[in-house]
RNA sequence: GGCCCUAUCGUCUAGUGGUUAGGACAACAGGUUUUCAAUCUGUCAACCAGAGUUCGAUUCUCUGUAGGGUCACCA
């Protein structure tokens, strides 16, 4: 009979001393997906033993961020370390009774220091543990000394609480950032002292800033909420984060959550840190935007729309949005486009300058001639759709030189150096407005 | 500085004891329904260095170098 497989339990233990960091978000994803793949469970706890720095608003941000990414877990099992004082106390007392920890008199060096703390009695041995990503890692724990595990029986510190909680909640796999590698020997020492089993360790390479240092505030946005506020899609964020430090070994770049659930492999994690590249994130996000239906696009972007667009009537709004959709990487980009005046032709007759209406070396007469002809053709069109307009104008434009005909027309309609093509513009503006704008351009050319 | 970790195009990465070292993003050039966007095609671009093992190393070993992490009565 084969052994009974233990249920895989992973955990996400953020400290509510800041908003959800993108690094924590990626760690959460790996923990969540690995647990789910194995029909296990990811536990969530808040490491708030530092009372001075822990804040409820950060708790809320972390929870909201995980929810945004689509990481769900059993909230009824969530707890705060600050609520478990009695449990840690019990373990501390046992450790002290077993003479594996002791009260130690200290000299007070900085404000807030106590004159007595609880130290772990270090046996000063060498510890070797196996890391999924890097293989065996050896540490001589002598250098750690008798480290402090609690300020008092009522005030346990990080290493103690981590070990106790992982033990009590049956954590089988610890998946966390690289920066915890050097914490691991200390935690193993405590585990051994308590007779707790050792979980399987997987240390993830760090997400780096462009200068290859640890990603922090000074490098710009590090909180997930900032990306949400900038109008990135959660699916895109998940997709991008998952590919930092892991890849399936195929050419696939875009994954849904269910594909990740199928493809992800904890054994194929990268060793080296990866730079958080906003340019690639933008590309991924745009891929997701391109796949969105117009209805979804509208629903998602509406909160980012400037008032003067939001108030347009439904029909025009749909058309404007279709122009916007192919020009942005993320929703907040719409603000820049509008502020730069790129969409001004939707809001009224553009200001036209004579020189701008003329294609290259054509001269005003030629531009005017072409526009006269364009009007003649357009006036006959019944169904004023962009396809139809194009069909009717195409032969003429091709014969005369597309630039010569199409540039003045496009400029007459948009008044912009950059804009969609003239057929699209005419279709959006409608027959009446289109003819008016072209006539005005002709006046200017005279 | 001690300890620990890491090292393939600018970036994310694939890959192998013998490959034209592959893909994606970016950049650049060109095509497409002028311009912008989108799209298509193409170009540029990498195995940190030195020894050793080997018939042969980007790949294995060692050393060096560089970068990063960590050294709290924070987590």
TrEMBL record:
<dbReference type="InterPro" id="IPR045462">
    <property type="entry name" value="aa-tRNA-synth_I_cd-bd"/>
</dbReference>
<feature type="short sequence motif" description="'HIGH' region">
    <location>
        <begin position="14"/>
        <end position="24"/>
    </location>
</feature>
<dbReference type="InterPro" id="IPR049940">
    <property type="entry name" value="GluQ/Sye"/>
</dbReference>
<dbReference type="InterPro" id="IPR020751">
    <property type="entry name" value="aa-tRNA-synth_I_codon-bd_sub2"/>
</dbReference>
<feature type="binding site">
    <location>
        <position position="217"/>
    </location>
    <ligand>
        <name>ATP</name>
    </ligand>
</feature>
<comment type="subunit">
    <text>Monomer.</text>
</comment>
<feature type="short sequence motif" description="'KMSKS' region">
    <location>
        <begin position="214"/>
        <end position="218"/>
    </location>
</feature>
<dbReference type="InterPro" id="IPR000924">
    <property type="entry name" value="Glu/Gln-tRNA-synth"/>
</dbReference>
<dbReference type="InterPro" id="IPR004527">
    <property type="entry name" value="Glu-tRNA-ligase_bac/mito"/>
</dbReference>
<feature type="domain" description="Glutamyl/glutaminyl-tRNA synthetase class Ib catalytic">
    <location>
        <begin position="109"/>
        <end position="283"/>
    </location>
</feature>
<feature type="domain" description="Aminoacyl-tRNA synthetase class I anticodon-binding">
    <location>
        <begin position="303"/>
        <end position="442"/>
    </location>
</feature>
<comment type="similarity">
    <text>Belongs to the class-I aminoacyl-tRNA synthetase family. Glutamate--tRNA ligase type 1 subfamily.</text>
</comment>
<comment type="function">
    <text>Catalyzes the attachment of glutamate to tRNA(Glu) in a two-step reaction: glutamate is first activated by ATP to form Glu-AMP and then transferred to the acceptor end of tRNA(Glu).</text>
</comment>
<dbReference type="InterPro" id="IPR008925">
    <property type="entry name" value="aa_tRNA-synth_I_cd-bd_sf"/>
</dbReference>
<dbReference type="Pfam" id="PF19269">
    <property type="entry name" value="Anticodon_2"/>
</dbReference>
<keyword id="KW-0963">Cytoplasm</keyword>
<keyword id="KW-0067">ATP-binding</keyword>
<dbReference type="GO" id="GO:0006424">
    <property type="term" value="P:glutamyl-tRNA aminoacylation"/>
</dbReference>
<dbReference type="GO" id="GO:0004818">
    <property type="term" value="F:glutamate-tRNA ligase activity"/>
</dbReference>
<dbReference type="InterPro" id="IPR001412">
    <property type="entry name" value="aa-tRNA-synth_I_CS"/>
</dbReference>
<dbReference type="InterPro" id="IPR033910">
    <property type="entry name" value="GluRS_core"/>
</dbReference>
<protein>
    <recommendedName>
        <fullName>Glutamate--tRNA ligase</fullName>
        <ecNumber>6.1.1.17</ecNumber>
    </recommendedName>
</protein>
<dbReference type="Pfam" id="PF00749">
    <property type="entry name" value="tRNA-synt_1c"/>
</dbReference>
<keyword id="KW-0436">Ligase</keyword>
<dbReference type="GO" id="GO:0005524">
    <property type="term" value="F:ATP binding"/>
</dbReference>
<dbReference type="GO" id="GO:0008270">
    <property type="term" value="F:zinc ion binding"/>
</dbReference>
<keyword id="KW-0030">Aminoacyl-tRNA synthetase</keyword>
<dbReference type="InterPro" id="IPR020058">
    <property type="entry name" value="Glu/Gln-tRNA-synth_Ib_cat-dom"/>
</dbReference>
<keyword id="KW-0648">Protein biosynthesis</keyword>
<keyword id="KW-0547">Nucleotide-binding</keyword>
<dbReference type="GO" id="GO:0005829">
    <property type="term" value="C:cytosol"/>
</dbReference>
<dbReference type="InterPro" id="IPR014729">
    <property type="entry name" value="Rossmann-like_a/b/a_fold"/>
</dbReference>
<dbReference type="GO" id="GO:0000049">
    <property type="term" value="F:tRNA binding"/>
</dbReference>
């Amino acid at each position: 009979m084969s052994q009974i497989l233990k249920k895989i339990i992973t955990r996400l233990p953020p400290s509510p001393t800041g908003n959800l960091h993108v690094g924590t978000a990626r760690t959460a994803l790996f923990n969540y997906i690995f647990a789910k793949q194995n029909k296990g469970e990811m536990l969530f706890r808040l490491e708030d033993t530092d009372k001075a720095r822990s804040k409820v608003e950060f708790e809320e941000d972390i929870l909201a961020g995980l929810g945004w990414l689509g990481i769900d877990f059993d909230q009824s099992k969530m707890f705060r370390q600050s609520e478990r004082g009695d449990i840690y106390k019990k373990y501390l007392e046992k450790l002290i009774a077993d003479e594996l920890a002791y009260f130690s008199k200290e000299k007070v060096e900085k404000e807030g220091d106590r004159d007595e703390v609880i130290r772990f009695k270090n046996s000063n041995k060498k510890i070797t543990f196996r890391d999924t990503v890097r293989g065996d890692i050896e540490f001589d724990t002598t250098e750690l000394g008798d480290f402090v595990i609690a300020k008092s029986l009522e005030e346990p510190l990080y290493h103690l609480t981590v070990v106790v909680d992982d033990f009590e909640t049956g954590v089988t796999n610890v998946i966390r950032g690289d920066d915890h590698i050097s914490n691991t020997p200390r935690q193993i020492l405590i585990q051994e002292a308590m007779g707790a089993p050792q979980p399987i360790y997987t240390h993830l390479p760090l997400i780096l800033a462009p200068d290859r240092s640890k990603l922090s505030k000074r490098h710009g946005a590090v909180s997930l909420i900032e990306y949400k506020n900038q109008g990135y899609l959660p699916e895109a964020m998940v997709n991008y984060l998952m590919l930092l430090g892991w890849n399936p070994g195929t050419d696939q770049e875009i994954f849904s959550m269910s594909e990740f659930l199928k493809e992800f492999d904890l054994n194929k994690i990268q060793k080296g840190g990866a730079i958080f590249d906003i340019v690639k994130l933008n590309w991924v996000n745009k891929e997701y935007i391109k796949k969105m239906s117009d209805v979804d696009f509208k629903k998602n972007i509406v909160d980012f729309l400037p008032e003067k667009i939001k108030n347009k009537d439904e029909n025009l709004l749909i058309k404007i949005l279709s122009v916007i959709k192919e020009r942005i990487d993320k929703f907040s980009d719409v603000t820049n486009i509008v502020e730069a005046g790129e969409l001004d032709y939707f809001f009224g007759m553009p200001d036209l300058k004579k020189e701008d209406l003329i294609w290259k070396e054509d001269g005003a007469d030629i531009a005017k001639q072409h526009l006269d002809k364009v009007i003649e053709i357009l006036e006959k069109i019944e169904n004023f759709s962009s396809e139809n307009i194009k069909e009717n104008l195409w032969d003429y434009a091709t014969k005369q030189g597309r630039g010569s005909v199409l540039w003045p027309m496009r400029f007459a309609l948009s008044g912009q150096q950059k804009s969609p093509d003239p057929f699209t513009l005419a279709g959006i503006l409608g027959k009446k407005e289109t003819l008016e704008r072209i006539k005005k351009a002709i006046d200017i050319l005279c």
